[in-house]
Amino acid sequence: MLNWSDLEAACGSCRNCSLCETRHHVVFGEGLRTADLMFIGEGPGEQEDLTGRPFVGRAGQFLDEMLSIIDLDRSRYFIGNMVKCRPPQNRDPLNAEIEACIGYLRNQVALIRPKIIICLGRIAAMRLIREDFKITREHGQWFEKAGVHMMAMYHPSALLRDPRKRPEAFEDLKKLQAKIREVCPETYQGVIPLGNRAGRVQP
Ligand code: URA
């Protein structure tokens, strides 16, 4: 297992698959490296490839808005992707690309040791929860793997494309908030609840 700086350097010079030929930046992931909560998406899109940061495009901005409903921002969790380089035209990453990259994600999970992992979309859920995972049926359900609580939510791009899914995503957010309060309440330490932003930090 590599430490953070060696891992970031290894990702930065990775040539494990052909996505390295078209990338502008490796998108390593960002956020709190000691977090109890981790979000894992699919792979970088155009904005992420150009900036080297995860979830900064339209879907990412929408995700930030959603998570702010339950008082979460990037200082409270770590966010990354199944593959760290952009698939051309934002196609789904191929299994071979996911396998070429999964060691980096495993290393990140081993360093972070999260209590909760949220898969954003079916690609992450099918690799991390179960091969035949059905996102429409199984989003919002908790699974436990090696002591880690895992749930899949709809990918924010899917929620942008189909707003009718948003009420279900809201229910999933509430489940996430309840699980955080149950297994890692420190995640919310010092947070000023959204409804109370003009006020003081709650005791
Ligand atoms: N979609 C993803 O799955 N990941 C990103 O970083 C951006 C968009």
TrEMBL record:
Family in the record: Belongs to the uracil-DNA glycosylase (UDG) superfamily. Type 4 (UDGa) family.
Protein name: Type-4 uracil-DNA glycosylase
Pfam families: UDG
EC number: 3.2.2.27
Superkingdom: Bacteria
Gene3D superfamilies, per database record: Uracil-DNA glycosylase-like domain (3.40.470.10)
InterPro entries xref list: UDG_Type-4/5, Ura-DNA_glyco_family4, Uracil-DNA_glycosylase-like, Uracil-DNA_glycosylase-like_sf
Annotated source species: Candidatus Intestinimonas merdavium
Catalytic activity: Hydrolyzes single-stranded DNA or mismatched double-stranded DNA and polynucleotides, releasing free uracil
CDD domains associated with the record: UDG-F4_TTUDGA_SPO1dp_like (cd10030)
GO biological process, one term: DNA repair
Gene Ontology molecular-function annotations: 4 iron, 4 sulfur cluster binding; metal ion binding; uracil DNA N-glycosylase activity
Protein keywords: 4Fe-4S, DNA damage, DNA repair, Hydrolase, Iron, Iron-sulfur, Metal-binding
Uracil-DNA glycosylase-like domain ranges (all copies): 28-174
Enzyme class: hydrolase
